[in-house]
Amino acid sequence: EGYPGLIVHGPLQATWLADLVRRHRPGAKLRQFSFRGRRPAFHQNQLRVLGWQEQGRLMLETRDHEGAVCMSAEAELAA
Question: Residue 11 in 3-state DSSP?
């Protein structure tokens, strides 16, 4: 397909995003989690995992070395 390297598996990135919630909100349970691939991530580039809270939901992303969003996700915690 002409890509510059191996693609980092999308569902693996989603797992990393869900794990970010687990590490920063110990004991919390996910009520809802959805994710969407935005751009391929390649093995040779650094990938950052980010998260923040916005209007009661957790917004999560992986971003590549250029700052482009590769995977986005939203999570809602159980009450």
Answer: helix
Cβ–Cβ < 8 Å for 25, 71: no
Q: What is the pLDDT of residues 29-60, one digit of tens each?
A: 999 999 999 999 999 999 999 999 999 899 99
Token pair 């191996």 in the structure block, residue:
6
58 burial type by CB count under 10 A (0-12 exposed, 13-18 middle, 19+ buried): buried
The neighbouring-strand residues paired with 57 are 54
Q: Which single residue is written with the structure tokens 């890509």?
A: 3
DSSP states along 14-32: HHHHHHHHHHHSTT--EEE
Both tokens of 26, joined, read 């110990």
pTM given for the model: 0.92
Q: Both tokens of residue 1?
A: 């397909």
Tokens of 25: 């909100």
Counting every residue, how long is the chain? 79
